[in-house]
Design brief:
Layout: H1 2-29, H2 33-47, H3 55-70
Helix pairs in contact: 2-3
């Protein structure tokens, strides 16, 4: 009796592990546009040649924030 119950539990665990692995593979295959935007915009923000008053960086940050909101960022 216990061996059969243990075997059933092991089969259910194996099925659950396969489901999790397939879900992880699907998540890795998806492209997240918000994450890509954040990565690229941070690099651009660091590399911008700014004016003395900081207006270029301010404008860059504002435009980046607007784009991120369009991509689903909740602020």
């Amino acid at each position: 009796m216990r061996a059969a119950r243990l075997q059933d539990a092991l089969e259910q665990l194996t099925t659950a592990i396969r489901d999790v692995e397939s879900a992880l593979a699907a998540m890795k295959a998806e492209h997240d546009p918000l994450a890509s935007h954040i990565f690229v915009s941070r690099r651009n923000y660091r590399n911008v040649n700014d004016t003395e008053s900081g207006k270029r960086r301010e404008m860059s940050a504002r435009l980046s924030f607007n784009t991120a909101c369009e991509l689903g960022f909740r602020g």
